[in-house]
Amino acid sequence: MDDLFDISPPIDSTEAARQDSLLAPRFYTTDFDAMDKIDVSSVRSSWDQLMNEFREDVNKGHFERTGSFSDAVAALPEPLRVEFLDFLISSVTAEFSGCVLYNEIAKNVENPDVKELMRFMARDEARHASFINHSLKDFNLGVDLNRLKREKKYTFFSPKFIFYATYLSEKIGYARYISIYRQLERHPEYRFHPIFLWFERWCNDEFRHGEAFALIMRADPKLITGANRLWIRFFLLAVYATMYVRDHRRPVMHAAMGLDPRGYDYQVFDITSAISKQIFPFTLDTDHPEFRRLLEKLRLVMEDIELAKQRGGVMGALSRGIGSVKAGVLFLRLYIRPVIHHDLPHDVRLAPSW
Ligand SMILES: [Fe+2]
Ligand SMILES: [Fe+2]
After folding, report:
1. Ligand 2 centroid – CA 161 distance (Å)
2. Fewer Cβ in 10 A, N or C end of the chain?
3. Global pTM?
């Protein structure tokens, strides 16, 4: 598999994937001793059932390319090509960042449950990353994933933050892929690249990864009670807001799929909220007009910050500073909005039924 990751791109897509920004996927490391102490005995039967699903490895042969990938890339008009390429680069980085994190945990823990889970998930994410990297080759590009792993900066996250952030990114990943898949199932004429045909079974992997984190959190109830509820609220909002800002930067790609970023994102929020009720005791009120108004304002401020960054110089730095304060205030206003509470289900496990 190594040769997949060893490509010298004519323009440096590895560099594009390495650049750190507020919105770019990050690489994480964590406290392995604390990971070792995870105890899933209170959810043992659900856990064993999930591990059996991983062991079955239903997607083992799924990530094999057939035919028409490179022809599809050659046929893309220029603006779509640029946005789709950006989508692939950020996706490969996200998949690979999961792969690296899960691998690091697997290598550094003794706890047999955690080790086994992390190995399964690293296996899946490596497949996802290399599948996307193949598609980047059709652009005569490829991200040198090994170099990325060596050179990218790592952010330390305590285990509970890993659980919240990774749970949500797996579930939102599922919601994003299944929404695109269903849209293109209804409208095959908008399927401008064959990779979307892989999304249905692909996102079932992400759903399963999310299930594992849901069980880990259920096994340790303090993770979802008390002050930790404030952290859950923070991560829900951060993940939703990041996605909203980022998707609006790819208007052409969404239009090509017959989607508008706003409608698509609110659908993804609905699905993610419905799923996250399995473990989080509340959801964000994303349908409230005030939530939507503030989120849109936050997006516009983030666009101003991006423009100021490109402008550079003293004025650019000043605008960026002002923008950051505005963004912070808007984020806070969104954060303190009332949430929708509900009771947790007796059984955590869910099926990917969207
Ligand atoms: Fe993945
Ligand atoms: Fe995943």
Report:
1. 16
2. N
3. 0.90
Chain centroid to Cα 216, Å, comes to 19
| Pairwise CA distance, residues 196 & 131, whole Å | 12
The Cβ of residue 174 has, within 10 Å, a number of other Cβ atoms equal to: 26
Cα 249 versus chain centre, distance? 16
User: For residue 177, which ligand has an atom nearest its CA?
Assistant: 1
Q: Tens digit of pLDDT for each residue in 226-283?
A: 999 999 999 999 999 999 999 999 999 999 999 999 999 999 999 999 999 999 999 9
Q: How far is the CA of 245 from the centre of ligand 2 (A)?
A: 22
Q: Tell me the β-bridge partners of 27.
A: 154
- Ligand 2 centroid–CA 170 distance in Å is 5
Q: What's the gap in Å between 170 CA and the centre of ligand 1?
A: 8
List, run by run, the mean pLDDT of 10-residue segments along the chain (354 residues). 30 54 63 95 97 96 84 89 91 90 94 97 95 88 76 85 95 97 98 94 97 97 96 97 94 97 98 98 98 98 94 92 97 98 94 92
Q: Ligand 2 center to residue 208 CA distance, Å?
A: 8
- Every domain of the chain and the residues it spans: 2-220
Give, as residue ranges, everything with CB less than 5 Å from ion ligand 2: 170, 206, 209
Query: Which amino acid is present at 109?
Result: V
Name every residue whose Cβ is closer than 8 Å to that of residue 148 and which is 6 or more positions away in sequence: 14, 17, 18, 93, 96
Burial of 228 (0-12, 13-18, 19+ CB in 10 A): middle
pLDDT digits (tens, 9 = 90+) for 143-163: 777 777 777 778 898 999 999
Q: How are beta strands 282-284 and 339-341 bridged, if at all?
A: antiparallel
Distance spanning both ends of the chain, measured CA to CA: 33
Pairing of strands 27-29, 154-156: parallel
Centroid of ligand 2 to alpha carbon of 209 (angstroms) = 5
